[in-house]
């Protein structure tokens, strides 16, 4: 009794130190990580989505800075309270920032297709805001259902469909960019590979991403001396970048959020499954911190991510916040409480004063592309590395809808570009555009391109990959009853257009793609019958219901 009382008395008066020498190490390492992510994010907005600078630097980045500042300050506060409660001086704040996988997903799966379809990047921005709007509420209320989803869904299915996104929509574009300017792209890629995969340490422990960017800058600017112009950098571009150098505070964007609801059908197809994945990812990272000695309340962490993401969304930020993996590493580096809050202040300075614009004029985008490819490689490899080897065929099955969706996007983009070019040179009348497009698509099967197959299989690719992956895992495990349940879920979601459809609805009462929905239902019935007639099937495969690792 006396021991307990003494402990309580000692911790109640304990004053945690807000800054330690180790916080400098953590700030440099984590701050560089955040800076690279912000450069990548800004590059996606400007060069992939072709978003106007007035929106990028005047609306999105200030809102993003606000979100990340609120997040890092809150987790510094949680660390302070934990240190005060426990009387420990080694408590490390949870690292947080823009969710990197979802940064690419909302760009390439939501905003880019809608921007290409409408020809208006502002509409793509609005759709991204709606995506975060729903993701935020899923995070806030999903703590109650995440354990159940984690229990029933195989890891290979969750990570397999994520790997599909990483291989197609995350990895392919930066890989192609690297080979378009290999003098920079491949050199920077080698720098990253030998460090992040090979364990090579650079001078004074400099982060590999920072080294790659520095080398890319040297090659790009050096090439200008010889008139090569690698990386497309110029002094004029630097001068123009200072036009965005100023002070911009976040402003409410509620009107843009609600205008994006016209794309609700497209948004929900990805927001729901990735919101669920966010829940599991956050829980894993909190557990990782607990294993390192810092126990944080999962519900408060999930709620905080949802609340700050919602605030950022309503102010114009189409990217969601997340607790990062790596808490044990920052703690081992000496990070405590101050590094988190200091990172938040750094982000505000970068985003509210337009400094990111100047950095992008100094850094060639192709030097950042290897970092994107590395992220895609890591996410794709994770599906195979953290699941049983025998589930590999199910992971490949989960990849296939994403391959179809990516191929269809390439064809659609090419057709749109060709028609626009034909109109520009005066060779195509406006009233003939739809007829020409239909004729071109109809001719594709004769060239060996099954466009309709890509269209149907790739619709709702994230959910389709998850369902197919789960069916594959449970069939491999001879757990036919669970395979039947996922096939039935596939039939229902296909009927309403969440899978294998371009929009949500009921298709005049018969479903959006009735043939596919019926086929899933038949599959479910067959697997159910097989489960009842197959003797000795063990339905207790706990290992396939493990949560995905980050």
Task: Please work out how many helical segments DSSP would assign.
Answer: 24
Widest beta sheet: strand line-up: 1-2
Q: How many strands, what sense, and barrel or not for the largest sheet? A: 2 strands, antiparallel
Rounded average pLDDT? 84
Shape: globular
| Number of DSSP strand runs | 2
Radius of gyration: 25 Å
Please state the structural category. mainly alpha
Helix % is over 70%
The unreliable regions are 1-11, 539-550
Question: What this model shows, in words?
Answer:
The protein is mainly α. It is built from 24 helices and 2 strands. It has helices at residues 2-12, 21-48, 53-86, 100-118, 121-141, 146-152, 155-170, 172-180, 182-197, 208-224, 235-241, 254-259, 264-291, 298-314, 327-333, 338-352, 355-362, 365-385, 392-424, 433-443, 451-458, 461-476, 480-495, 514-533, and strands at 96-98, 321-323. It has a two-stranded antiparallel ribbon. The radius of gyration is 25 Å and the shape is globular. The relative contact order is 0.15.
Task: Jot down its keywords.
550 residues, mainly alpha, two-stranded antiparallel ribbon, 71% helix, disordered N terminus
Topology of helices and strands:
Layout: H1 2-12, H2 21-48, H3 53-86, E1 96-98, H4 100-118, H5 121-141, H6 146-152, H7 155-170, H8 172-180, H9 182-197, H10 208-224, H11 235-241, H12 254-259, H13 264-291, H14 298-314, E2 321-323, H15 327-333, H16 338-352, H17 355-362, H18 365-385, H19 392-424, H20 433-443, H21 451-458, H22 461-476, H23 480-495, H24 514-533
Helix pairs in contact: 2-4, 2-16, 2-17, 2-18, 3-14, 3-16, 4-5, 4-7, 5-13, 5-14, 7-18, 7-19, 7-22, 8-9, 8-18, 9-10, 9-18, 10-18, 19-21, 19-22, 22-23, 23-24
């Amino acid at each position: 009794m006396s021991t307990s009382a003494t402990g309580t008395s000692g911790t109640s008066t304990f004053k945690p130190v807000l800054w330690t020498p180790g916080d400098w190490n953590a700030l440099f390492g984590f701050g560089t990580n955040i800076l690279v992510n912000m450069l990548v994010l800004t590059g996606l907005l400007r060069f992939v989505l072709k978003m106007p600078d007035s929106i990028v630097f005047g609306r999105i980045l200030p809102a993003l800075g606000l979100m990340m500042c609120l997040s890092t300050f809150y987790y510094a506060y949680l660390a302070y309270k934990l240190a005060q409660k426990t009387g420990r001086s080694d408590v490390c704040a949870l690292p947080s920032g823009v969710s990197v996988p979802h940064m690419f997903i909302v760009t390439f799966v939501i905003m880019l297709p809608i921007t290409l379809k409408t020809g208006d990047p502002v509409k793509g921005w609005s759709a991204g805001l709606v995506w975060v709007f729903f993701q935020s509420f899923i995070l806030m209320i999903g703590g109650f259902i995440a354990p159940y989803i984690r229990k029933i869904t195989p890891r290979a299915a969750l990570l397999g469909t994520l790997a599909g996104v990483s291989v197609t929509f995350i990895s392919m574009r930066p890989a192609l960019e690297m080979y378009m300017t290999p003098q920079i792209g491949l050199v920077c890629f080698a720098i990253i590979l030998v460090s992040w995969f090979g364990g090579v340490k650079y001078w004074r422990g400099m982060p590999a991403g920072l080294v790659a960017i520095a080398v890319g800058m040297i090659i790009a600017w050096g090439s200008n001396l010889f008139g090569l112009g690698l990386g497309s950098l110029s002094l004029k571009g630097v001068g123009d970048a200072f036009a965005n150098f100023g002070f911009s505070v976040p402003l409410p964007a509620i009107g843009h959020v609600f205008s994006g609801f016209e794309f609700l059908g497209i948004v929900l197809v990805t927001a729901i499954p990735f919101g669920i994945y966010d829940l599991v990812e956050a829980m894993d990272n909190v557990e990782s911190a607990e294993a390192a000695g810092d126990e944080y309340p999962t519900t408060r962490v999930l709620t905080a991510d949802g609340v700050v993401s919602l605030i950022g969304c309503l102010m114009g930020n189409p990217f969601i916040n997340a607790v990062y993996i790596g808490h044990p590493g920052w703690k081992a580096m000496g990070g405590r409480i101050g590094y988190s809050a200091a990172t938040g202040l750094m982000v505000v300075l970068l985003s509210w004063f337009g400094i990111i614009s100047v950095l992008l004029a100094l850094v060639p985008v192709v030097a950042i592309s290897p970092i994107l490819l590395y992220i895609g490689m890591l996410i794709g490899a994770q599906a195979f590395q953290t699941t049983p080897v025998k589930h590999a065929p199910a992971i490949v099955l989960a990849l296939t809808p994403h391959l179809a969706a990516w191929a269809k996007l390439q064809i659609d983009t090419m057709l749109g570009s060709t028609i626009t070019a034909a109109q520009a040179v005066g060779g195509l009348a406006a009233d003939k555009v739809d007829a020409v497009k239909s004729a071109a698509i109809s001719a594709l099967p004769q060239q060996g391109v099954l466009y309709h197959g890509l269209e149907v299989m790739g619709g709702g690719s994230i959910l389709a990959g998850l369902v197919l992956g789960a069916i594959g895992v449970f069939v491999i495990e001879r757990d036919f009853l669970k395979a039947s349940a996922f096939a039935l879920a596939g039939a229902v979601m296909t009927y309403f257009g969440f899978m294998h459809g371009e929009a949500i609805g009921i298709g005049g009462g018969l479903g959006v793609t009735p043939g596919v929905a019926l086929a899933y239902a038949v599959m479910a019935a067959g697997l159910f019958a097989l489960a009842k007639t197959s003797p000795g099937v063990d339905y207790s495969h706990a290992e396939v219901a493990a949560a995905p690792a980050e």
